[in-house]
Amino acid sequence: MNRSLSWQSAAFLLTVMTFVSVACKKTPAPPPPPPASNTTGITPPTPALPAPTVTLRADAATITRGGTVTLTWESRNSATVDIQPGIGSVTPLASGTRQVSPTSSVTYQVTATGPDGKTAQDTVRITVNDPPPAVAATPRGGEPVKPPAAINLTAQQLFDRDMQPINFDYDKSDIREDQKGKLQTATAYMKANPNVRITIEGNTDERGSEEYNLALGDRRANAVKQYLAAQGIAETRLSSVSYGEERPACSTQTEACFEQNRRAAFRINP
Questions:
Q1: Chain-centre distance of CA 233, in angstroms?
Q2: Where are the alpha helices (DSSP H) in 102-208?
Q3: Which domains does the chain have, with CATH numbers?
Q4: Pick from 148, 163, 138, 125: which is nearest to 259 by CA?
Q5: Within 13 Å and on the Cβ side, how many CA atoms surround 239?
C-alpha cells in the first residue's frame, strides 16, 4: 500500500512539474518587419537647378559716329555671360559694364548660360548717326568755299548710291525708324527716274527653318513695297520676291553679320 501511494505521489509530482514548465515558457516575440524597399525601381528626380536670367541695357540708344556708349549687364544663376558682336565673354558674371564705340547701327545680344546648359538672352539696339556736315570755311573775301564738283556716276552707280538695302530687327518685318531715311532717298530716286522699275528682294539670316524664312523675307519685301507706294510710287513699278536665307550678304555667324543678312535689297528690272 505504501509503495502504491509513493508511485502515485511521484507521478503526480511529475505532472505538476511538467505543467509548471509549460506554463512558464514564454512565446518569443515576432521578428520586426523588413525595411520598406523601392518596388517601383524609379530613382527620385534630382531637384532642377534655377534657370539663368540676364538683362542688357545701354546708357544711350542713339549716338553720333565716333562716340561711345556704356553697356550694363546683370545676370543670375549663370556660369558664363557672352555679349556679341565683338565683345565675347565678360566678367564679373553678376553685373558689369563695358564701353563700346560702334561705327554703324548695331544690336548687341547678351547670352547667359547656366551650369546645366540652359540659356537666357537679352538685346539692346544702338543707332549710330552720321555727324553733321562741316560748315564750309569762308575766306577773307566773304565768298564761301565751293565744294568740289560731283563726280559723274553711271546709272547703276546712282542706283546703288540711292537705293541702299533696308535692314530689319531679328524676326521682324516692321520698318525701323533708323531706316526711313534710306527709304526717303529711294523715294526721291524713283520719282526722279520715272521709267525705272525695281524688284524688292526680301532676305533673312540663317536662323529658323527654310519655310519660315521664305515667309519672313516675303513680309519684309512687301513692307518696303507698301512704304514706297504710300510715298506715291506706282505699284506697277514695284515687284517683290523672297529669297529667305538663300542669298546672305555675310557668312560669319556673328550678330553683326546676321544684321546685314536681315534686309530688303533693290534690283533694277530689265
A1: 36
A2: 155-162, 180-192
A3: 53-129 (2.60.40.2470), 155-268 (3.30.1330.60)
A4: 125
A5: 9
* Per-residue model confidence as pLDDT tens digits over 19-77: 555 555 555 566 766 666 655 667 777 777 889 998 998 888 888 877 788 889 899 99
Per-residue model confidence as pLDDT tens digits over 160-203 = 999 999 999 999 999 999 999 999 999 999 999 999 999 999 99
DSSP codes of every residue in 193-242: -TT--EEEEEE--S-S-HHHHHHHHHHHHHHHHHHHHHTT--GGGEEEEE
**What is the pTM for the complete model shown?**
0.47
Q: For residue 152, give the C-alpha cell.
A: 559723274
Q: 3-state class of 267 per DSSP?
A: strand
- Given its phi and psi angles, is residue 246 left (phi above 0), alpha (psi -120 to 50 degrees) or beta? alpha
Closest CA to 59 of 69, 51, 50, 68: 69
Give the C-alpha separation, 222 to 226, whole Å: 6
